[in-house]
Amino acid sequence: xxxxxxxxxxxxxxxxxxxxxxxxxxxxxxxxxxxxxxxxxxxxxxxxxxxxxxxxxxxxxxxxxxxxxxxxxxxxxxxxxxxxxxxxxxxxxxxxxxxxxxxxxxxxxxxxxxxxxxxxxxxxxxxxxxxxxxxxxxxxxxxxxxxxxxxxx
Length: 153
What we know:
The chain is of the alpha+beta class. The protein has six helices and five strands. Helices cover 42% and strands 16% of the residues.
């Protein structure tokens, strides 16, 4: 699941250096935003808008560039959902799957050991060596289904 740890600026700088990236202000701010866990799945546009809302003078192209650098460095995972929705989340090292509300766009994480075991068995029976996998479920969150308003935000 998402981390709720709020990094100290020095930790962020060290994390960037370990990943081979210079600790620039935009990188540190974006890293902090993703690590805060407040919104663990954000699109580049959402990152951009949140930075702008806090008075940061940063361009959308810079946000995309930084997020791509984070993905390339292994710090962040990029998820492509149907409907051209792409979100980024911190790479916490553990596996989990996702559900996306097709009404409000919110992404939810889940982990189910029974599903994981079943996928492993299917691959094994087929003689397939699974290196990684992603499971995305699409539907409507409870709030959108009942009230037309997301109950999970």
